[in-house]
Specification:
Elements lengths: L11 H29 L13 H13 L11 H13 L1 H8 L6 H28 L4 E4 L13 E4 L5 H119 L4 H20 L1
Antiparallel strand pairs: 1-2
Amino acid sequence: MQQSKPVTPQWWPEFISNHCQLLEWQDTLEFLCFTLYYTIAQEPRWPCYQAAELCECAGELIKACRNQSGRLYPLIQPKERGLLESNLRQICQIRHAVAHRLPQTERSMCLKKTLAEATITRLERLIRASASRYHIRSMEWYPVAASREQNCQAVTIELDGPSILSARQMSLGRHTAEATALRASEEGRGQEKHSKKKEKKKEKNQNCQQDERLEQVTEKHEIDRHHNQLEFEDIAIYNRLRRRLEHLQNVLATRARQLEQIQQAKRYEEFALRQLTCISSQGDNDGVSLGFILAVLVVSASLVFYF
């Protein structure tokens, strides 16, 4: 088996171009082999041509070429049968080169081109003959997916025309146009839906911003009210403390005056006692002096008892 060799960077453009060409030939051959087998088989072996692997499909056609009781055998001339079988065996080289990504020389690409063109011509001629002989006018084709799911759109291909590949290309063009229109419509709906979602989001953001501003105003009002309340409480406390201080100052002043009067009374008392001592020592019986001293004592006593 031919091994895949690494491709140097300078050969990348040529390798990619050759690989794309091989992919195109493989896709075309798979489609034609699938279509020919569809026209001759009593039951379809594959749900769509994408599920028909080229080597397997070519092998089934080779068996059909040798089956004398089959529907393909009478459509092939005896001298064409060997060439068709040889072409079907050789096209597996294209599948092998694509699967293993083998680099191709210019000579090998020319040989594969000749092989692909000859096989395509023979397959198209057999498809027209089979469709005409067995009254098969059209075939459903699924170009998008490889299964008959509900989301796959079938395309009808006319098999009684001059070229199967041209009919395939026209059907693919119609399908592509319809798919493009559908995609454009979906994109339009998507953009409209996106714009509606954007507007709703914008409106929601505006509502959120309004709610945030309202909450900020409410919070600021509450903070201001709390600050005012604290200021009023501070003023009330200050007034109470100021009144208390004034009261204590008044009490202290009163006590100071009382203390001064008590000291004055004591001085009067001491003065009266000294006079009494002098009078008693001198033996003076003067009534005026004695009365004066008694008055002083009475005043001092009254002051002391008053406080």
